[in-house]
Design goal:
Elements (H helix, E strand, L loop, with lengths): L1 H29 L2 H30 L6 H6 L6 H6 L5 H22 L5 H25 L23 H30 L4 H32 L10 H26 L3 H23 L13 H24 L15 H33 L7 H18 L13 H7 L1 H18 L6 H22 L7 H10 L2 H26 L1 E7 L4 E4 L2 E12 L3 E12 L2 E6 L2 E5 L5 E4 L1 E5 L2 E10 L5 E9 L2 H18 L25
Antiparallel strand pairs: 1-10, 2-3, 3-4, 4-5, 4-6, 6-7, 8-9, 9-10
Length: 662
């Protein structure tokens, strides 16, 4: 009965989404306020219906209702409760329910918090958002129904993919979807603006909070996926340029460019064409990621291996929304007049340089990801594009970007002074040089460019600190004035600086682990000792152990440093019961200097085991940096100027006015 309720509310949600699509836009065209207001009610009703749908599917998983085909294929009664719940979105059908639930959540949030939006713009935004929901709800109902029944019901299910039975991966998809789907709001705002012709600084003010929220969630989602792959897959790395990894990275890059472009549009009424185009392309890249993961064209540990016919449906959705939005964009080109002029050396110029480098990097990732697929579809030839290509194309573009980041906030709008900005950054320059010299002195060996690259991370961090120091007149004004300025500084300034600090911390972690990683692969018998990066690891043997739904062989390595025992590592190999599949669990000793990482391989004929050891210097800074970036976005989001919606207009206003730049 619960499953039938979920199925019924899913169908009702499709009907409500069609109402949300048609009536508000029709009302906006006719100037009928009552029809426009239907959009808000429909958006909230759709969210409530999909919440019931998702709850019904969750109940089916928690109670192990194997009469539901989706539960039968992706769950097992012996699974721990956490993985029964996460199993809801650990498969194609259930994850699509989470997808549309997140989509409805963002639409409902616009309906609830967008009270200051002009009624016609709000109606068009909710109408476009409703059309996206309708398309994906139709996709679920007709090709991916999670509530199909089986009679008679089997006694036991097949179980969830063992590599998905991990705490980090339990929370990774919801954050990732919040980012993917969150960019739909920027898309809806862009299409609504093109429909109504309302493209001004106020529009940029309205769209920035939604874009920022989506960017934050996608940042955290990608970070959690990287962390999971690092410790769960046992390969010792944190990023592989896997096509599905790239599918989430591309919208993040485009969303980053969109955030910076919207700032220029809000402050200077410029870059309208570019900002609207980025809003369309960012969500289009999210749709492309959805297609790649669910079409069956990719073989990846992250991908859902599903019927390619479903991929055709998603491809049609992607073509309809992307093509339709771009056609509307081309038709409205004459409306997108540019605003104020500015010199190349200015804050606007710095933000444009930021956009050019990021979008070019995104294009490089796009080509490297899709070219093998296009070549195979045309010629049948299979090629692999891996890290060497991306490192050679993407990384060089990021170097000038990192050099330019500290300059942007210190340049004036319209016309800046590059020499003056450099003078304000003298402390950052000095500390960066000191960090480079110290790294050369301590490293002794390794890539000679690595200390320079690590210095870039220090440069970005100190540049952010210098920008705050300059704005509060640190060391140039009495301390009571400095403290007053610190208190009165907008939260968005603190948020921007925090996010840039996070970028710098992440860069230091990437450079450290990429340049100075140590790796060793040997065969070890109980009692053997091996050395790596100043650590001694003594293999004590393997002990069997039984888990909740798996059998495990746990190895023990006694780690000593300078003759004293430091810790013990316990890597293991697991064999799951349902489905019967082996996984590897790495043993990791985390320290600020780096991670000591051990992986237990296969048993050899003489009783020895293959063992892989790594030392990954500074690797934790990669994920610490992304968390700092997320916190920077959160701080910015609390700024009164970035609250959802724009400041209320006076009742006497007869037309929406641009929000004056602060």
């Amino acid at each position: 009965m619960i499953a039938e309720i979920g199925h019924f509310t899913l169908i009702l949600a499709l009907g409500v989404s069609l109402v949300q699509t048609i009536l508000p836009i029709w009302g906006a065209q006719r100037g009928d306020l009552s029809l426009m207001q239907v959009g808000s009610a429909a958006a909230q009703a759709q969210f409530m219906l999909l919440l019931v749908t998702f709850a019904a599917l969750t109940v089916a998983y928690v109670t192990s209702d194997f009469s539901v085909e989706n539960v039968l294929q992706n769950s097992h009664s012996a699974k721990p409760m956490l993985y029964k719940i996460s199993g809801v979105w650990g498969n194609h059908e259930g994850s699509m329910v989470l997808w549309v639930l997140t989509l409805a959540l963002f639409g409902s949030a616009v309906a609830l918090f967008g009270r200051n939006l002009p009624p016609d713009l709000k109606a068009n935004v909710l109408g476009v958002q409703g059309s996206i929901s309708a398309a994906f709800l139709a996709f679920i109902i007709f090709t991916s129904n999670p509530f199909n029944r089986i009679h008679p019901a089997p006694f036991e299910g097949s179980g969830l993919n063992p590599i998905l039975q991990d705490p980090a991966l339990s929370f990774h998809p919801p954050f990732l979807y919040a980012g993917y789907v969150g960019f739909s709001i920027a898309f809806s705002f862009a299409v609504a603006a093109l429909i109504s012709g309302r493209i001004d600084p106020a529009w940029a003010r309205w769209v920035r909070p939604w874009t920022l929220a989506a960017w934050m969630f996608l940042t955290l989602g990608i970070s959690m996926g990287s962390w999971w792959a690092y410790y769960e897959l046992g390969w010792g790395g944190w990023w592989f340029w896997d096509p599905v990894e790239n599918a989430s990275f591309m919208p993040w890059l485009a969303g980053t460019a969109l955030l910076h472009s919207a700032i220029v549009m809000e402050k200077r009424d410029a870059l309208k064409v570019w900002t609207i185009l980025l809003a369309i392309l960012t969500f289009s890249l999210s749709l492309m990621g959805t297609f790649l993961v669910r079409s069956g064209v990719l073989t990846s540990v992250h991908a859902f291996a599903v019927d390619p016919a479903r991929g055709v449906f998603i491809l049609a959705i992607m073509i309809f929304f992307t093509g339709g939005a771009l056609a509307l964009f081309a038709g409205r080109a004459q409306v997108l007049r540019q605003g104020g002029l500015f010199a190349p050396i200015s804050r606007e110029g710095a933000l444009i340089l930021n956009n050019l480098l990021i979008t070019t990097g995104c294009a490089a990732v796009f080509v490297g990801t899709l070219y093998p697929l296009a070549l195979e579809s045309v010629t049948g030839e299979k090629i692999s594009v891996g890290p060497p290509f991306f490192n050679a194309t993407f990384v060089p573009l990021m170097i000038p970007l990192l050099v330019a980041v500290p300059y942007g906030p210190l340049l004036a709008w319209k016309r800046g002074d590059i020499l003056g900005a450099t003078q304000r950054l003298w402390i950052a320059i000095a500390l960066t040089a000191l960090a480079i010299i110290a790294t050369y002195a301590m490293s002794g060996s390794g890539p000679w460019l690595a200390p320079l690259a690590l210095g870039l991370g220090v440069w970005v961090i100190m540049g952010a600190v210098s920008e705050i120091g300059f704005r509060v007149k640190a060391f140039r004004a009495p301390w009571d004035e400095v403290l007053r300025r610190l208190r009165n500084l907008p939260r968005s300034a603190y948020g921007t600086a925090t996010a840039h600090i996070g970028v710098g911390v992440m860069v230091i972690g990437i450079v450290g682990t990429s340049a100075w990683q140590s790796e060793k692969i040997i065969a070890m018998s109980p009692g053997d000792t091996s050395e790596i990066a100043g650590y001694s690891l003594t293999f004590s043997g393997v002990v069997p152990q039984k888990g909740p739904n798996y059998n495990e062989q746990i190895g023990t390595f006694v780690v000593t440093e300078d003759g004293a025992e430091l810790t013990r590592l316990h890597p293991s190999k697991r064999m799951y019961v349902a489905p019967p599949q082996a996984t590897t669990e790495a043993g990791i000793h985390a320290a600020w200097s780096g991670d000591l990482y051990a992986v237990l391989g296969d048993e050899l004929k003489d009783g020895a085991y293959t063992v892989r050891m790594y030392f990954n210097p500074l690797v934790r800074l990669i994920w610490i940096g992304t968390v700092i970036m997320f916190l920077g976005g959160l701080i910015s989001l609390t700024d009164r100027r970035l609250r959802v919606g724009a400041p209320k207009r006076s009742r006497a206003a007869t037309a929406p006015q641009p929000v004056p730049a602060e």
